[in-house]
Amino acid sequence: MFNYLKNSRQKQFIFLFTIFLILYFFIPKNENNYLWRLPPLLKDLPLMFNVLLDNLMFNWFTIPVWDPDWQMYEDKTLFRIITRSISNLVLFFIIFIREVFLGGFQTVNSILGDSITDANTWISIPALPWTAVVIGAIIIGYKLEGIRLALLAGIGFFYVSVFGQWEPSMQTLSLVLFTAPVCFIIGLSLGVWGYLSKRVEAALQPILNVAQTMPHFSYLVPIVVLFGVGDHAGSIATIIFATPPMVRLTILGLKKISPEVIESGLMSGCNRFQLLFKVLIPTARRDILIGVNQVIMQCLAMTTIAAFIGAKGLGFNLKVALNSLKIGKAAEIGICVVIIAVVLDKLSLAWANKQKDYFANLNFYQRNRLSIFFILLTVCCSVVAFIASYFFPEGFNYLYLIPFNKGLTVSPILDAFVDWIWNTFFYYLNSFNIFLLTNVLGPMKQAYLNMPVISTFVLFMGAGYIIGGLRSCLIVGSLILFIALSEYWDRTLITLYMATFAVGVSAISGIIVGSLCSQNDFASKSILSICDFFQTFPSFIYLIPVILLFGITDTSVMIAAIVYASVPATRYTVEGLRSVPSSLHDAGSMSGVSKLQRWRLIDLPLALPHIMLGINQTVIFALMMIVLGALIGTEDLGQLIMGSLSRPNGAGIGFTLGIFISFICLAVDNLIRTWADERKKLLGIE
Amino acid sequence: MTEMSIYENNVCFDLNQNLTGGNMVKLFKGLVLAAVIVSFTVFGSIAKAADPIRIPVLNWTSQIVMANVMAQIFEEQGYTAELVPAESASRYEAVRIGDLHVAHETWESTMALPFYEAMDKGGLIDAGSHDLITFEEMGIPNWVIDEGLCPGLPNWEALKSPECAANFATADSGGKGRWLEGPYEWHTDVMPNRLKGLGLDELWMVKFAGSADALWAELDAAKKEGRGTVIFNWSPNFTDAAGFTFIDFPPYFEGCRMENGGTLETTGCGSPKGWLKKAAHIKFPITHPAAYKFYTKMSFTAPQIGLMADLVDNQGMSHADAATTFIAEHRDLMDRWMN
């Protein structure tokens, strides 16, 4: 029997599943039975987190601070003074960048003080006319790549301004222009440090894992408590979300450097400082800059989430538009987010690919030709804008700043499109919805809720043991144990049920679509662009319209999650299949395989490790969307995480449940990654 | 191949450790630390100087327009005002510790709890009420009555008829009629208890929506589908304009609800009428006295709040323009409140 199992993993899994089923049906449902549900030993955890935060902010290490308004000393805690000065610092920079684009006097005011600015109200930063910004974008695009990128950047910004989204777009852009460099600096520093010290790298790994898998909403409340509400809070939340890929790519890039490069640096007499900044970082430049590109995309993906804690800009306007169900308007704003993302993405990629040019002996004009052009044109635009202000008597100067809601709009067309979809498909979709709810989702949810805790453990830990031995088994087990010891196990099961369904459907559809599209170059390129679009298009926009079609039911949440989570599955499938060497295809053709056989017997097995990493991402994406699905109405962990946003003491519960979600991701990640690594080794790809 | 890469790693690691590693880490740490300290001392103090009046904006129209009205008046008085996107309940904590200066639309039924919790902890003051009565209740859009989907509405007794309930069924309601409540944390079990108290739980069930957005989407979806819908709603709200009727439940009295010590017989009572308060940070009167005076005197009526929403929702103005128009139309009122 033992030997029989030893040789086949398939049989091991069948054996495991049989035990699982036996336990599933024979464990009695009884709250006092520890095999059915574990006691909530960790239920005080959220409370402890709250007490800790409360003490840090209001009780520990108090210092008397003179308050000029009250004319008395006030006790402030050291920690709060530190976090609030970080807030002020961040806010100062964001406002400064924003005022460069949109004008204002807060920056001058905070440097010079009230007394001077009150007396001289004319002191302020004038806004850059939108025409100048568009020209600036064109020039940067031209300098980085050439005429194509220049056109793209120009048209992108032109669209944004003509459609009346100038002001919110620039607010969002100013947030990104501050946040992305900060992420870059923090990510690069941590990455370099992690490269230099193994211990630091080991310590960074789990932190990065949790930061990348935790739903955003769970750290919003702690941030509000620590840093207050406003643009700075939005920026800090974005930093947490966007920095991890930067750290990872920096470590990766530096590790790839061959020792010869370092040796040659040392032989040329570099000191430590020079070695780092002149040898190591420039050599790893490409990976590092791809990190920057990731940072920018993540920053824009966070715009709507950051609006929950006070970030101004497109995200906030989108929320307002959705609140009165102006779907067309919301989609229009969403498109602006995508456009800004695409422009910044292409610009940063071009920067990553650009080789440094080493022409010496250029004179001042030759070196700074484009900057000079930009300055001259900006002056021209300003003059034109100033003159134009006499021609637009109603107060909106269309050549200076196009006011919000005064531009062109396509929202009636988009609204009509939504109506058309409704009119054409609703009745079919409704019967599908009823079928799905009563025959699939409902029973599945019940089945998950009827699962005894012991059988869940057997399934996960057994899978861990089969795939990665005792180590995986224990890691997965302890991650799940942490959740099982809380009072939210039932809700976790509901989350698991939704995640299983969403991941299953996304994975299948992703693999099918990916396989079909990878058959030719054009289709693969198009599908990858579509993936980019859906990754940056704020998912809020389809979260609400889905309700129109499927009502406030689990189906709506599933649809939204599947749309979003299919993206990585598709992307990784295309990448995986495209990377199968063509010599293998030829070898297959010579042995006489048909196209389908080739896909099944050659392509898929070779690409599977990579595809599985895509599935890994799919799990993370699906869970994030399911948490967001609480906006529609769910009864899982997400409901409590979203609810924590509007509770004064929500920090603890939101954060703890966020960690639960993160642990689910990490458990799955451990299983998939162990499997993929082993498989890659077997196949000789690495 | 594998051996090779291990070898490479080793060399790389040794080089770093012996020739550059230890000292470089130190240097690097020092650089970062120095940068952090310098930036703190320089900017932490500078940025403090600007202290605009921070007004929260939430995600419904009248609230945003009112925030804009206040911002424009405060700027007229010579202050700077800043609009900060915020969340409805968590903003009281922000007002309490001074991150926000005001919270100008505080609804009794949903926000009284965080409002008074913040007041208990100290730092938040009550700056008076608006001149109107707020009401929050389950209700139906007017077309549901017009189409005769449930004869007898808005009287709650009409809900007792099984034919009526059937018109309100959805895919996941199991044949029962569905009440769509707001998010669970708004009133927890009040509505399920009410159904039990009125003996309607055989025919009706309660589903909790995830957000206000979901409520409005349901309103739209039901209308398109021609299916009846009972949703939680409040007044004044933008739905007033499209026609919305609240269901008449047995009258509310103190202690009728289960969580206030009521019994199953009394818990069928309706919702209380409530106030709409204004909250302020405790230092607001000292730091911005004239603004605070205006703020305490400011008291809008239901038609005025309706107008604010109307200017944006139906006349297509931006929030700031709507505020300007509103101020222009109510100039004398604003002047009276400022003096």
What is the gist of this entry?
By secondary structure, chain A is an all-alpha fold. Helices cover 77% and strands 2% of the residues of chain A.
Number of domains of chain B: 2
**Largest interface: which pair?**
A-B, 92 and 87 residues
Q: So what's the oligomer here?
A: heterodimer
Low-confidence stretches of chain A: none
Q: In terms of structural class, how would the helical and strand content of chain B be classed?
A: alpha/beta
The portion of residues assigned to helices of chain B is: 40-55%
Biggest sheet of chain B: strands, sense, closure?
6 strands, mixed
Bin the strand percentage of chain B: 15-25%
- C-alpha end-to-end distance of chain B: 84 Å
> So, the CATH homologous superfamily of the largest domain in chain B?
Periplasmic binding protein-like II
Number of strands of chain A: 2
Strand percentage of chain A, roughly? under 5%
CATH 2nd-level architecture of one domain in chain A: Orthogonal Bundle
Major sheet description of chain A: 2 strands, antiparallel
Class of one domain in chain A in CATH? Mainly Alpha
Proportion in helices of chain A: over 70%
Query: Based on helices, strands and strand pairing, what is the structural class of chain A?
Result: mainly alpha
CATH topology of one domain in chain A: MetI-like fold
Polypeptide structure, described:
The complex is a heterodimer of chains A (686) and B (339). With 686 residues, chain A is an all-alpha fold. Among the domains of chain A are: 49-119, no CATH class; 169-324, MetI-like (MetI-like fold, Orthogonal Bundle); 413-450 and 486-683, Orthogonal Bundle (MetI-like fold). In chain A, 77% of the residues lie in helices and 2% in strands. Chain A has a two-stranded antiparallel sheet. Chain A starts with a helix and ends with a helix. Chain B has 339 residues and is of the alpha/beta class. Chain B has helices at residues 2-48, 61-76, 91-96, 108-121, 142-146, 162-166, 184-187, 190-197, 212-225, 239-242, 284-287, 289-297, 302-313, 319-329, 331-338; strands spanning 53-57, 81-85, 102-107, 124-129, 134-141, 177-181, 204-208, 230-235, 244-246, 273-274, 276-281. In chain B, the strands form three sheets. In chain B, strands 5, 6, 7, 8, 9 and 10 form a six-stranded mixed sheet that branches. In chain B, helix 2 (61-76) crosses helix 13 (302-313) and helix 2 crosses helix 14 (319-329). Chains A and B meet through helix 4, helix 5, helix 9, helix 11 and helix 13 of A and helix 1, strand 1, strand 2, helix 3 and helix 4 of B.
